[in-house]
Every structure is written in C-alpha cells, then in structure tokens.
Amino acid sequence: MAFRKALKRTAIVGGGAVAAVFGLSQLIEYRKTQHGLAQLAHVAAEAELKVPFADELPSRQAQLAALQNTEEFDVLVVGGGATGAGCALDAVTRNLKTALVERSDFSSGTSSRSTKLIHGGVRYLQKAIMKLDYEQYMMVKEALHERANLLEIAPHLSAPLPIMLPVYKWWQLPYYWAGIKMYDLVAGIQCLKSSYVLSKTKALELFPMLKKDKLVGAIVYYDGQHNDARMNMAIGLTAARYGAAVANYTEVVRLLKTNDPLTGKERVCGARCRDVITGQEFDVKAKCVINATGPFTDSLRKMDNEETQNICQPSAGVHIVIPGYYSPDNMGLLDPATSDGRVIFFLPWEKMTIAGTTDTPTNVTAHPIPGEDDINFILNEVRNYLSPDVEVRRGDVLAAWSGIRPLVTDPSSKDTQSICRNHIVSISDTGLVTIAGGKWTTYRSMAEETLDAAVKAHNLSSEPCKTVGLMLEGGKGWTPTLYIRLVQDYGLENEVAQHLAATYGSKAFDVAKMAQVTGQRWPIVGKRLVSEFPYIEAEVLYAIKEYACTAIDVIARRTRLGFLNVQAADEALPRIVQIMGKELDWSQERKTAELDAAKKFLYHEMGYRSRSEQLTKTTEINLDYQEVVRYKKRFHKFDKESKGFITTVDVQQVLESINVDIDENALHEILNEVDLNKNGQVEIDEFMQLMSAVKKGQVSDSRLAILMKSAEETLDKRGPVTVDRSGGGV
C-alpha cells in the first residue's frame, strides 16, 4: 500500500503514467525486496495450511451432502468460473467455512473461451501512455504481477510465449519498440524475458508464413499462455482439497433472506439451491453470499432486488482454431490494428493455431454461437499478415467458439453509461457481494479484493489472504522432465506422456495408473480416444473424479478436444459416452440423450454447424470446362452403371478392386458428409458441388474427395487389364 501511494505521488508530480517509469531503479529494487519477502511468506503460509483432502477428492455426492448438512457457511460463492473458483480458494485458505455452487459445469462459460493468454495488456499500456491515464497504468502493473504469480503456481498449465509484432513501415519500428520496452519496464523484475527487434530476414526465419512484401522487421515480446479451462479446474479442485464444498450442476433458485435483529434490515443469508441432475432442492445457509457469475451478474443481483439497474454490458468474442501449420510451434503473432481497429492474436495452442478475437455487443446467453461473419472477419485479418503462398481456407477452420466478456459499468458512478475498464466490487443494501468485470489474468487479485470487502462488510473472523504463491492442483512436484518418468514407468507414448504431464502436472501419475493395457508391443498402456490427438480413455475415468457429469464436460473442459477439432470430438463421443455410462451406471436412454446433447453442443457452440454448412451453402458450381470433364470422369469410375449417383456399395467395389479395406459404417459416414438431401446416395451434382467447394477453400479435408482422387490415381496407374491376365480369350 505504501508503495502504491509513493508511486501515485511520483506519477502525479511527473505528469501522469509515464512519469512513474522514471523511478525505475527504485521500482526494481522494491520489486526485488518484495519478491523475496513474498517468497518467504508463501512458504510459511503453505506450511500453516491443512489439506483435508490431499489424497483423494470427495465425490460430488459427498460435496452435495456437505452443502445440505452444514449448519452455516461463512461464505457461499455463486459461480464456478475463474473468479468464482478464485474466491472460493481465497476464502477457504483464510480458514473460512466455504461453499461454491455452479449451475452448469466449472468453467463452462467465458473462462473456457478466452484467447488463452495470461497478459498485462499491451494495448492498455498504450492507452495509459497516450492519455496519461494512471488507472490504466495501475491495471497493467497489477496484471503483470498476477501474470508472474500464475506462471509460478501452475507451471504445468502455463508458460511464457514469444509474440511477434510485424512492422511494415519504418516509422512504426521505433514507435512500437518504445511501447514494448515500456511494457518490459512496467513488469520490472517480473519481466518474463526481454523484448527484442528482428531484421526482416530473421523475422521470416522464425515465422516463415509471414507476408514478405514491404516487411521492415519485427519486434518480439513475451506474455504468458495457459490452458484456460484446465487452469479454472485446477483452482476449483485446489479449493476442494483445502476443504471447500464445491458442486457443479447446482443452481441458485432464489436467495434466502432474514431480518437483522440489530438493524431490522433485510439481509441475504444463503440460497435455495437445486441439483440440476436430480432436481432435488435444498437450502445452503451462509453469513455472506458472493455473486461471481460473470455475464449473469445481473440475474443474481435482480434476485436480490428486482429494481436494481443492470451493470453488465456483454460483449462477444469469437475465436477460431486452424491447423498447426499456420504458425510456428512457439511463436505467436499480434496484429495491433485490424481493418476496424481491433486487435487480433494469432497463437500456437495445443499444437493447433488459435486466432481471435472479435468484440461485438451481444445478449447474455448460456450458449453463445460463433457467427459466420465473425469467422470470416478473423480469416481475412489472418490473410493480411500471411504470405500469399499460404492459402487461408474457410474449410481449414477446425473449431470456432464465442465467449461473452462481462464488461461492467460501476453502479456507484454518477455516469452509469461509462464502462469500467477494470473490475468492480459492490455490496448491496442486503449484503450481497458482487464481483464483476476484470479479466482472466487478474482473477486472484480480484478474489482477494472481494474477500477483503466481504470480511469487512460481514465482520467475518478471517486470516489474511494466502493465495499469492499458493501452488495449484498438479503444480507441486511438476518438472519439465516429468513426462519421461511416465514413459519409463508406465509405457505410455511419448506424445501422450507429454500431454498428461502438461494437463495434470504431478497428478498425471494418477491418470496413468487408470490407463488400460493396449495389448500391443508399444505403447504398453494408454488407448487413444482418436488417433491424431493424445487424449486417452483413462482421462474419461479421471474426469469423473474431477466432477465431470456429462459427455460435454469431457470433450470441452476436462480434455479440450471439442475446442481443437469438432470432427475429432464427434468421432470420440460414442466411446466417451460408453465409458461414462459404464462408470456412472447410465441407462440406454441417458446414453442416447448424452450423445445427442454433446453433438448439439459441437454443432452450435463449437462451430460444427458453420463448418458443415460450407457445402450446403455452395449452391453455385464454380468449375471450368476441363475441371467438369475431369471430375465427371472420376465420378464415373465409381458409377459404372451410369445411374447418376453412387452408394456405399459402389465405393466398396472400387476399393476392393485396389485392395483397400474400409469399414462399412465409416463409409456411410464419409458419404453422409456429402449427401446433402440425405437420401443415402451421392448424386453427381452433389459431387460437383463438393469439388467446387474444395476449389474455393470452403471445404478442406473432405474424406470422400480425397478417397476418390487416390482411388482414381491407383486405377490409372494399373492401366487396362490384359486378356491373358484376366484369364479369358482364345
């Protein structure tokens, strides 16, 4: 606090945020001292804390029983996103009796649909300097501090990422360099790695897909990257290990209220909750209720007071995932000024490439859908920065999603129309504590501020905050070489072992113990859910221990398959449902319902609809004469009877003639992708439509197109069968 005041004085005397940097040597010295003291405090705090569930997490049923049977909690947190989970962890480690309820799954909302960056916000610093805005400067400084902390407490889920800012005008080079260097300086001792300037040649060496024309050079700076949904899970599971009663699929039906005997005023004293899965309702009593529901902030505030004004101004951010070959393995790209003034990130993530985000006003919904216009906007911006040699195709979008960012206006501000650039903590007349706004990176400091306010407002007997430096689930005991032990001790594939170590940290051994023997020479254990991704069947069983209740929980948040490739997720679903059904004793009716719900989720929320509609929307066949002749010839190699359509039988006969064996069910799926009128056959017009869409880049990786092309090439190589080879003739 003393440092904040001193820094504020420096900033004001020197003329705003820029002057704060002039005390850089004092800033760095202060940071060094504080960092050392903080490290000692972390060790002491962790030694003091008891971990009631260090060995095994309580089941969801046990958590629900704790919610129902506890006479009164000190704190009830509503919302299981990053902020809500952070509040629960902060509260329970202050020795407060803590509960958390989430009406869907943990991290099912905005917290799993971010850009996957842990960052201070380069653009916020630019605004702070240009407008001499001290509040923006402090927001960046706080975020950079939290960035360093998050990288420290969950090293398996997060890592520094170099991000390149390509420069195409000479005058921009010193301008951007000064801004990025300022970013390093504000981070001080917590700077991840120093930024640097690259020549055009070196920039193209590191990012060969970059557009060469007019490129002057580039600047590379460092921010953090993480697996957002898994990070959210780690925070929530850590809270559960420390004794918090946490339950997903538990919604608040209404707030409980009582009259304060001293003041006679009405006070919130808990919530009536409903188990979404069973429909059972029960009361959870608490001295303090914290509203951490993100975009749904106003829904809970209106439960408290119907006349309260809305403070949330939701904004939708769409991201897309394209194949990993669009970007280097370990280098991101920042487009600082898109065609409409927005910022676009282009980042490697989970061996794929993620691009986004948009920023458009939207309505609050639990099921946001990525729009085709937003997907195409991102693709166009990506095209502007990539070499003409790299064809950016609409068909390469493997998944797309929309996340709702809960921008807020400050209810205590006279100007209610102005959006708060940071977060706000407010307490209603009845004592409901609301934390709203903010961003992923600062979840911990937001939680600390919220609990400080809650403790003060409700006179709770609490210890100081202990979450700075507190290791999250799987972080303690993790090392960069941990995966080698998984390979050596369990016989897992190298890629699978790396994935498990990066996802579960030191808990990866618990997953490996559950892995089934493959029956092959190698790998010894670990059956994959789909061949091209390192997710294994044992993760489905482990997901249930992590409170996964539905197939969607597994494909979206325990694994990230649904976010990486919707078709691969769709292929994995039947096996996931089968494993969960056996473990949770689901009826056939429940299994069918789970499969349908998960397919609907992929279709609407993960961009499968947009992907599949690329063919149906291509009504015009845009092929030249030679292409039409070539594709008709290819089609008639399968349609030997000139029926005008082909079926699985036709395809099977051709494949058998070239000694290719494909499962009949797989063939049905392949043809069904192209069978627009769903009559069990592919007409020549549908085939031409497919080839036109492939030509335009609207469809890529079409299994039927690739299969028919390779079969044709094999047949052409063989040539006509001679009479003596066929066994006929005289």
Protein architecture, described:
Helix 15 packs across helix 16. Strands 3, 4, 5, 6, 11, 12, 13, 14, 15, 16 and 17 form an eleven-stranded mixed β-sheet that branches. Strands 1, 2, 7, 8, 9, 10, 18 and 19 form an eight-stranded mixed β-sheet that branches. This protein has a two-stranded antiparallel sheet with strand order 20-21. A hairpin with an 8-residue loop joins strand 12 (332-335) and strand 13 (344-349). The chain has 730 residues and is of the alpha+beta class. It is built from 28 helices and 21 strands. The longest helix is centred in the first third of the chain and has 25 residues, at 24-48. The chain is 45% helix and 17% strand.
Beta-strand residue percentage: 15-25%
* Computed CA radius of gyration, to the nearest angstrom: 28 Å
Which stretches of 5+ consecutive residues score pLDDT under 50?
1-43, 721-730
Structural class: alpha+beta
Write a brief structural summary:
The chain has 28 helices and 21 strands.
Comma- or semicolon-separated keywords:
single chain; 730 residues; alpha+beta; eleven-stranded mixed β-sheet; eight-stranded mixed β-sheet; 21 strands; disordered C terminus; EF_Hand_1_Ca_BS; metal-binding; Glycerol-3-phosphate dehydrogenase, mitochondrial; oxidoreductase; calcium ion binding
Write the layout of secondary structure elements.
Blueprint: H1 2-14, H2 17-20, H3 24-48, H4 60-69, E1 73-78, H5 82-92, E2 98-101, E3 117-118, H6 122-130, H7 134-153, E4 158-167, H8 172-187, E5 196-199, H9 200-206, E6 217-226, H10 228-241, E7 245-247, E8 250-259, E9 266-275, E10 281-291, H11 297-304, E11 312-322, E12 332-335, E13 344-349, E14 352-356, E15 360-361, H12 372-385, E16 399-409, E17 419-420, E18 423-427, E19 433-437, H13 443-458, H14 482-490, H15 494-504, H16 508-514, H17 538-545, H18 551-558, H19 561-564, H20 566-584, H21 588-604, H22 608-616, H23 625-638, E20 645-646, H24 648-657, H25 664-672, E21 682-683, H26 684-696, H27 703-718, H28 723-726
Parallel strand pairs: 1-2, 1-10, 2-7, 4-12, 10-19
Antiparallel strand pairs: 3-6, 4-6, 5-6, 8-9, 9-10, 11-14, 11-15, 11-16, 12-13, 13-14, 16-17, 18-19, 20-21
Enzyme class: oxidoreductase
Cofactor: FAD
EC number: 1.1.5.3
